[in-house]
Amino acid sequence: xxxxxxxxxxxxxxxxxxxxxxxxxxxxxxxxxxxxxxxxxxxxxxxxxxxxxxxxxxxxxxxxxxxxxxxxxxxxxxxxxxxxxxxxxxxxxxxxxxxxxxxxxxxxxxxxxxxxxxxxxxxxxxxxxxxxxxxxxxxxxxxxxxxxxxxxxxxxxxxxxxxxxxxxxxx
Length: 171
Description:
Keywords: Autophagy, Cytoplasm, Isopeptide bond, Membrane, Ubl conjugation. The chain is of the alpha+beta class and about 170 residues long. The chain has six helices and three strands. It folds into two domains: about 15-70, Orthogonal Bundle (Serum Albumin, Chain A, Domain 1), CATH 1.10.246.190; about 85-165, Ubiquitin-like (UB roll) (Roll). It has helices spanning about 15-35, 35-40, 45-55, 60-70, 110-120, 145-155; strands at about 85, 130-135, 160-165.
């Protein structure tokens, strides 16, 4: 059986996967910390992140990734939340915009706030009937969950929150 070229991207090498992973990490840090954290790391730290992920060594990965999840206490969160929203019902591969974890009045933004602004069709049913599931890591977090908390605790190894909007089963 041949590789399903129409369904999956074929990666030419491990080096290409590593380069893509590090590119995503750098993009996430640019959003969270203006790239300050990743730029202060040495090449060996970048390698440790990758090797920890590749070899399924959580302790090795987290020793470095922990730094990317920190922020000054006076800031109440990251600069912006790195996220991507995926929908099966659109041609667009994903939605990604700048979104702050804290509102101008100091209130923490929630998952519901993000969806209302970026993808209102995901949560605003006209007839009041729930039409979609909002999934992260296979679970459906409450829409009232603070986005900063989700970013710290449910981000994928690339430091992005990958949010899937899935049509509600109709059985």
